[in-house]
Amino acid sequence: MFDWSQQRLLVIAPHPDDETLGCGGLMHKAKAAGAQVYVQFLTVGDTADVSDKGFSTASERVAEVKAVADYFRWDDWHIAYPGDEFHLRLDALPRFELANTIEHASPLSIAAVKPTVVLAPHRTSYNQDHQAAAEAVLTALRPSDAGRRHHPGLVLAYEEAADQWRDQAVCAPNALVELTGADVDAKLAGMRLYGSQVHDHPHTRSELTLRSLAVLRGMQGGVAFAEGYHAMRWLT
Fold first, then answer.
1. Among 88, 188, 222, 229, which is most exposed with the fewest C-beta within 10 angstroms?
2. What is the chain's percent helix, strand, coil content, to nearest 5?
3. Residue among 219, 212, 191, 207 nearest 20 (CA)
């Protein structure tokens, strides 16, 4: 069994809420075991939502992040590219710049945090920011001399319910992390703190969708609940 208590996790999230949707259960599980958890957001800006006014400002979304960070007890978090200039436009940034930020330019870069586990979005997402982030993480974690650059032993791509919306087949997750009922409840509670982003069912960010996906992945592993991941590197 993997010992989460000894790990230092770095979660790369294109936008606030992606980290909770993709690995909220694992973050809760790891912190409860004694791990360190750091979250590197890439961008946030004014966002259309289901509120009465129809959008949330960047400052309102940052306030949500603060509440979620306190709830999950993150060790630290940071937003690399705040503002509408970058929000939903990460694909316009040169790959070199985005990868460089993730690799060593950010205060929560791979070089600064030296994580043992990196969690990032999967490249099959339809969202252009997720695709750009996933490709940049692959570049930042490219194989090289581990004596010269930090090499996390475990690199996982997390999934979100809408990632399957593609014009080509998407492989099922090849790594499952077992969750307790408390881990799933914590994931849902964390998502509720993103009040501007959570939706009623049917929606990819509804509580029923998130719980159902946890049940499905759990069934595939022979347990009650799980989160699915694609293992990009697993060095034992």
1. 222
2. 40, 20, 40
3. 191
Please work out, in degrees rounded to the nearest 5, the angle formed at the alpha carbon of residue 66 by the alpha carbons of 61 and 70: 145
**Is the CATH number 3.30.460.80 carried by domain 4-234?**
no
Summarize pLDDT for 94-149 with one digit per residue, the tens: 999 999 999 999 999 999 999 999 999 999 888 999 999 999 999 999 998 888 89
Residues of the chain with pLDDT > 70: what percent?
96
Which residues 6+ apart lie within 8 Å of 70 measured at CB?
none
Helices (H), the chain: 18-33, 58-72, 95-100, 110-113, 128-140, 181-192, 207-221
Is the full-model pTM beyond 0.70? yes
Give φ, ψ of 122 to 5 degrees.
-90, 145
Helices (H) and strands (E) in the chain, counts: 7, 9
Q: Assess contact for 10 and 110: CB atoms under 8 A.
A: yes
Handedness of CA 31, 65, 133, 110 (dihedral sign): negative
Contacts of 138 (CB under 8 A, 6+ apart): 123, 232
Contact present, 209 and 163 (Cβ < 8 Å):
no
137 burial (CB, 10 Å; 0-12 / 13-18 / 19+) is: buried
The CA R_g of the chain, rounded to the nearest whole Å, is 17
Each residue's pLDDT tens digit, 169-179: 678 899 999 99
- The residue ranges of every structural domain in the chain are 4-234
